[in-house]
Automatic annotation (TrEMBL):
Family: Belongs to the short-chain dehydrogenases/reductases (SDR) family.
Gene3D superfamilies, A to Z: NAD(P)-binding Rossmann-like Domain
Residue ranges annotated for the Ketoreductase domain, each copy included: 7-191
Keyword Amino-acid biosynthesis belongs to the record: no
Record key words, sorted: Oxidoreductase
NCBIfam families for the chain: PRK07231.1, PRK12826.1-2
Name under which the protein is recorded: 3-oxoacyl-(Acyl-carrier-protein) reductase
Record-annotated membrane-spanning stretches: none
Phylogenetic classification of the source organism: Bacteria, Bacteria division CPR3
Alphabetical list of PROSITE patterns matching this protein: ADH_SHORT
GO MF annotation list: oxidoreductase activity, acting on the CH-OH group of donors, NAD or NADP as acceptor
Top-level lineage group: Bacteria
Length: 255
């Protein structure tokens, strides 16, 4: 079950945190994985080494997902090297913090450029390739419990909450359009996962304890919790699952 042998996966922001957890989970399930990163080459190369130790192919590629040309180059390189792309994990993202009335145009644009335009660039370039391959494909977008709808709002990070809400709508809309090509599109909405992005919360014991107290599973999430969800959505067994949001939050939104 959940065998991803010979599948070729691209994980954006795979050098650290959730992306790293997903990249390694996919490799453990049999996939070969391209690890995209923005600036942290050593971290990205360490993930590549870990994947190679599992007996899978891997390499790291630097690309800013908010810049179309860099994404085109990354996707073309992967297609030339490996022939095809079967799984895309759109994960690279930024959090920002600023009171709304003081938020600058630049702060707003930077978060939206990476968290929304970046997902658009990578999904579009990969979708072109997947459609041309005439094979089943999987696009998995990492949203958040901060996506709105049934999720939580993000005071002091309105740009971030806005971007994650957009990714849920993006995933639903794209799912309908790509289903005729055998491409499933879903979102995963993580709760609080211990990574660098949220170190400001998790390093504060009072904040972390109050979060855990409110979470039915009584712990913070780890990157591999999201990795397991991604393996499922990438698998053949998830063939009938598209256009949905899988919340992986320890029950946080359920209470
Ligand atoms: P993280 O630890 O800060 O890692 C961010 C990753 O994104 C890094 O690999 C980074 O590359 C990459 N990245 C940043 N900007 C990029 C760009 N412009 N182009 C390409 N790559 C870029 O964050 P994380 O917590 O793992 O978050 C991953 C995703 O999960 C994000 O979309 C985030 O919104 C979402 N999420 C996180 C949580 C949480 O609690 N952690 C909860 C819900 C959703 P470098 O290493 O090279 O800098």
């Amino acid at each position: 079950m959940f065998d991803l042998k010979n599948r070729k996966a691209l994980v954006t922001g795979g050098s650290r945190g959730i992306g790293k957890g997903i990249a390694i989970s996919l490799a453990k399930a049999g996939a070969d994985v391209v690890v995209n990163y923005y600036s942290k080459v050593e971290e990205a190369e360490a993930v590549v080494s870990e994947i190679k130790k599992l007996g899978r192919q891997s390499y790291a590629v630097k690309a800013d997902v908010s810049i179309r040309e860099e994404v085109v180059k990354m996707v073309n390189e992967m297609t030339e090297k490996w022939g095809e792309i079967n799984i895309l994990i759109n994960n690279a993202g930024l959090l920002g913090a600023a009171p709304f009335t003081e938020m600058t145009e630049e702060e707003w644009q930077r978060v939206l450029n990476v968290n929304v335009n970046g997902y658009f660039h990578v999904a579009q370039e990969v979708a072109k390739q997947m459609v041309a391959q005439k094979k089943d494909g999987r696009i998995i977008n990492i949203a958040s419990i901060a996506s709105g709808q049934i999720g939580i709002g993000t005071p002091m990070s309105v740009h971030y909450g806005t971007s994650k809400g957009a990714i849920v709508a993006f995933s639903e809309s794209l799912a309908g359009e790509l289903a005729p090509y055998g491409i499933n599109v879903n979102a995963i909405a993580p709760g609080l996962i211990e990574t660098d992005m949220v170190a400001g919360f998790t390093s504060n014991k009072t904040v972390l304890d109050s979060f855990i107290a409110r979470t039915p599973k009584k712990r913070a999430g780890q990157p591999e919790d999201i990795g397991y969800a991604a393996v499922y959505l990438a698998s053949d067994e998830a063939d009938y699952v598209t256009g949905t949001v899988l919340y992986v939050d320890g029950g946080y939104l359920a209470v």
